[in-house]
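Honest question from a wet-lab person: if I give you the sequences of every part of a complex, can you actually get the arrangement of the whole thing, not just the pieces? Trying it with mine:
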Amino acid sequence: MSVHVDPVHFATCHCGAVRLRLTLPNGIENPRRCDCSMCRRRGAVVASVVLANLEVVEGEDELGVYQFNTMTAKHYFCTRCGIYTHHQRRSNPKEYGYNVGCLEGVNPFDLGEVPVFDGVNHPADRG
Ligand SMILES: [Zn+2]
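Yes, you can. This is the full assembly:
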């Protein structure tokens, strides 16, 4: 099941301090959950976008960044409301993952079942 979104879409944190502009020419790509130590706690449905297609248009100063383990991925969140907005991916640093639940006008539950990425056995940790 696919959910149509306009190519240019906005995503906001809960309090609205942080606003992202996303260009999604192919809609919501590769939606997934992940069972790594971070994502299993966060619980968000995440999709991918190339770095050039995500821009922080409001609230750059409000963004916190969290890194752990290999310190490769950068997980951004709103320091006011705590909501995860996006992260620079470890498995593909040329992409951001973003919180599908932050997309304006999109209900992530409309995506139905989304696959679970095996973050416990992260590709970057395999020989
Ligand atoms: Zn916020």
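Two things worth pointing out. The chain has one domain: 8-106. The radius of gyration is 14 Å.
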